[in-house]
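Dear Dr. H.,

I hope your travels went smoothly. While you were away I took the liberty of generating a structure for the chain from your last submission, since the lab meeting agenda had it listed for discussion. I wanted you to have the full record in hand beforehand rather than looking at slides cold. The sequence, exactly as received, is reproduced here:
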Amino acid sequence: MKDQSYLHCDQLLATALVVVLTLLGQFVSIAPVTAQSSEMFGLVVKGKKFTGQILFRDSETLTLLRRDGALATYSSLDVDRVVELGKALHPYSSHELEKRLINEFSEDYSVRITDHFAVVYPSSSAFGWPRAFERLYGQFIYYFEARSFAMKSPEFPLIAVVLKTRAEFDRYLKQTALRDQSNVVGFYSMQSNRIVTYDQASLATGPGFNQDNLTTVIHEATHQSAYNTGIHARFQPLPRWVSEGLATMFEAKGVYSSAEFPEQRDRLAADYFRNLQHLIDTKTFRGKIESLVRNDEMFDADPRSAYAVAWGLTFFLAENRPEEYQSYMRHTAQRGSVSNFNAEHRLSEFSTVFGDEIRDLETRMIRFYENFRSKP
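The corresponding predicted structure, in token form, is as follows:
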């Protein structure tokens, strides 16, 4: 089952800034971002120096957006000094970032700076990881540009870390909130803004990605691309079905490689389609859309159904109501802070775009997917 092979880690540490995540990356509490400007500050924390943009500060915590795109939260008690540097935040140069990553990882790793990525990967790997990540990013951009969806260029290089072995990956997990997750093979962290996975000999076939083996990387690369190009807002609340629905939709070869696989059936994500059909056949589908729209609880209580419905709703809207879907996505990315992002607010936000009759929407979805079952 796909949702057991990866976890979308929105943030690995609970902070007062934006999100406190569950193990699957769910937004469960939101504090508004209170960035005053894009000005860069220098911090001295327990004698160590840091630079970045202050996103959030109160009497207890201070959260810094660093020059590599990562978030760092410090206890206000540990902050010795804050200095205005008199210039706007600017990312590390390619040379600076490359040097920092080389110092962070052992000599067994290479660092490659591409047009959009800084890729850390085993020097011994036979797979072209830098080219592969760029290819996925290019397909993501192509999908939205073909639909006239305005995007921004990433402010920071997208960092992708490919660890050498499963053992190294497990040690990495033990340093994070994803402890003892033997079924996790990769994740995207909104705190570090990095993708982390490990090199598997069976992952690659040829110059591109193998759909059966690399859905994890495709899924997590979609999260990273969406949160860095304005499709999703990284520092604002987002219903989880929106982010997971988009990432699961991109797992299908007809979505992430549409020029090669142009048929609509190629855009079906087979596993989620089967799970959705099971819900329909067993008469347990009704009510699940409203449940996902209202809150994210299903992702913990019944992840198989949650991922299937999130994929099914996203794919249905993207294929049948694209203008409304794009309008909804723009709204969720641009709405700004919400003081009380509760179930009623989420439902109202959805209904304003798609209408009040969710049961009618369910009926149309059922008919849409029944058509695929009747076709060869």
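Two observations you may find useful: Residues 171 and 363 are 47 Å apart (CA to CA). The first strand starts at residue 19 and ends at 21.

With kind regards,
E. W.
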